Amino acid sequence: MLPARTGRRPHGRWGFRREVSAGRFAFLMNLPTIAFLCVVLVYPIAYAGYLSMHKVGVAQLRRGEFPFNGWENYSRVLEDPLFWIGIKNTLTFSAITVGSEIVLAIAIALLINQAGVWTSRVTRLLILLPYAIPPICNGLIWSFLYSFQFGFLNRILFTLGLIDTPINWAGNPDTALYALTVPYIWRTLPFAIILVHAALQGIPRELYEQAAIDGANAWHRFRRITWPMLQQIIAIILILRTAFAFAVFEEILAITQGGPGDATWVAAWYSYKITFSPPNNFGMGSASAFILALMIGAIALVYLKLIYRRVTL
Amino acid sequence: MFKPSPTGKLLLHVANLMVIAFILLPLVAVFFGSIQSEKALQADTRRLLPLEVTADNFMVILSKGEQKGRIFEQTTYLPDNIKSFYAAVVNSTIVATSVTLLTLLFGSLSAYTIARQRYRWTLFLLQANIVARFVPVIVLMIPLYIVMRSLGQLNSLTGVIIAETGFLLPYAILILAPYFDTIPTELEEAARIDGCTRLRAFISIVLPLATPALAACGVIVFIASWHELLIPLILNARPDFMTLPVIIATLVGDVFVFFNLMMAICLLALLPTVILVALLQKYIVEGLAAGAVKG
Fold first, then answer.
1. A119 near B17, Cβ under 8 Å?
2. pLDDT tens, A208-238?
C-alpha cells in the first residue's frame, strides 16, 4: 500500500487541490467505461429481452408502442423449422472450423518454430496477413474463388489438369456449408497460430534437451512435453473460437446468403433476416438473438470459471 | 536444437510452401480479378492468367464512376454506391480513428485501476469485461437499432462511434490490464511521495511506460473498427454515412454482379489494414496473446 500522506498538499496542474481517496479515484477512472458498458451492452441486452416478449413490427415501431405478447415470439421461433436448421448448421459449422483450426494451429505453430528452415521464416512473416483482411472482403474474394462460371479455384484446377468439368463449390446444397468453413478458417487461423506459437516459446528448452539425452523421439517429445504444456492455450482457443464461430455472419452474407435453399442458414443469419427483411419481425428477431446469446453466454461462463480462475491477473 | 534430417527438411519446406500457398491464394485471386474485365473473365473460363491487364476497374471507382474507361464504356448501369467510395473512406477513417482514441483513453483509465486496485467491484468489472467480450454484435443489433432510432442517431457517424467504442472497450481493457500489472508500483509511489496526485502519477509516470501496450491495443482496435460491418450496416442506411465494409456489402445484393469491380474495391479496402499489420506485426502479436491469455 501507499505510504501515509505527508503533510504537503499537492497542487497539481490538474487542479486537484485535495487528493481524492483511492476508492473514489478508482470509481472516477472507471466511470466512462461503466457508462459505455451500460449504454452499449447492458441496456441493449436487457432491452433485447424486453423486445423478445413484445410484439414489435414496422407498425409498432412507427407508433412507438410494443404490445406485450408473453412467450409467443419464443414459441414461434422454436416452432420454426428454419430456426432449427440454423442451429444445426451453426453447430456443424463451429465443430468443423474449431476442430480444424486447433489441429492446423498446432501444426503450423510447430512449423514456424523451426528457426533453421528458411521457408519457415517466410511463413512466419506472412502468417498474420489474413488477420488484416476485412471479413466482408474475405467473403467476396472467396465468392469469386468459388464461382461456378468464373471461379478462380476451378481455373487453378483446370490449369493443373485435376478436373474436367467445373465444380459448383458453394452452389451445391451438399457442399455449401463445408465450402463456407474454409474462408472462415482462413481468416481466423492466425489468431490461433499466434496463441499456440506464444505458448511454445514459453516451454523451457531444458525439457527438450533432457528428453533428447533420454533418447526420446520426436513423437514422444511432442506427446510428453509439448502437448501437456499446450493444453491450457488449446482450451482457451477452443472456447474463444467456438463462441465467435457461433456468431458467423459476414462470410454467409457475402458468399451464399443462407443458400442454396437453406443449406447455409446459420443462427446469426436467421436473426438478421427475420428482423431486417420484410415483414421485419423485431420481436422474433430478438427472441432468436436472445437464444443465441444464452448459448454463447454459457460458453463465456465456462471460460470465466475454468480458465480465468487459474490465470489470475 | 534438433537438426532435421535432409528428408525431414524437405518435408518441412513442402509443408511451408503449402501453408504459404493457402495464405496467398485469396490475395492472388483478388489481384487477378481486379486487373481484368468481365469480358475477359468470361471469354475463357478455364484460363488462370488474365487475357489482358487493365486499371479501368480502379479508375471507375477512384473517379466516382465518371471515368468509365474502355471496359465500362458501354455499361449504362453502375452500382450507385461505387460513387460513394471516397465518402466511405473518409467515414471509415473518422470512425476507426475516433473509436481507437476513445477506446484507448477510457480503456487505459479502467485497465489501470483494475490492475492496481483490488476491490470486489473492480474484480467484478474485470469479469464483466471478460463476459462482454463474448457478446456478438448480432445479439445487440436490434436493441441498438431501436435505441439509436429513438435517440435520432440513425444515419450518423456519432451513433456508430458510440456503439463500436462500447463494443470494443472490454477487449481493450483485457489487453491493457495485464500490461499495467507488470509495471512496478515503486515509480508511482516515489512520484506520489513527491506530491503527485494519483491522476498525475498515472498520466506522467505509468502511461509513458505503457506505450507498447497502448500501441498494441490501438492497432488491434483500429483494425477491428475498420473491419466492423454489422454495426454501421444496421445503423446507417444512407450512402453518405456508410463505411467501407457497408458499401462493399451493398454490392453483394446487386442484381448485376460485377466481380471485377468488387475485387478492385475489396483490394482498395483491405490495403490500409494490410499495411498496418505489416508495419506493426510485433505489437499485434503481443496484444492478441495478452488479450486472450492473461485477461
1. yes
2. 888 888 888 888 888 888 888 888 888 888 8
The A residues from 53 to 82 touching B (CB cutoff 8 Å) are 56, 61, 64
- Enumerate residues 157 to 186 of chain B having a beta carbon within 8 A of any beta carbon in chain A: 162-163, 165-167, 169-170, 173, 177-178, 181
Q: Which residues of A touch B93 (CB under 8 A)?
A: none
Identify which of B234, B284, B293 has the shortest CB distance to residue A311. B293
Any domain includes B65: yes
This model's pTM is above 0.80: yes
Kindly state whether residues B127 and B256 are assigned to the same domain: yes
CB atoms within 10 A of CB A165: 7
- Are B173 and B195 in a shared domain? yes
The answer to whether the CB atoms of A119 and B12 lie below 8 A apart is: yes
Evaluated on CA atoms B190, B192, B196, B199, the torsion sign reads: positive
pLDDT in tens, B185-212: 888 888 888 888 888 888 888 899 999 9
Of A23, A208, A296, the CB nearest to B136: A296
Q: What is the ipTM of this complex?
A: 0.90
From B24, B46, B78, the end of a domain falls on B78
Taking CB atoms and an 8 Å cutoff, what residues of chain A touch B116? 26
Of residues A43, A138, A166, nearest to B26 (C-beta)? A138
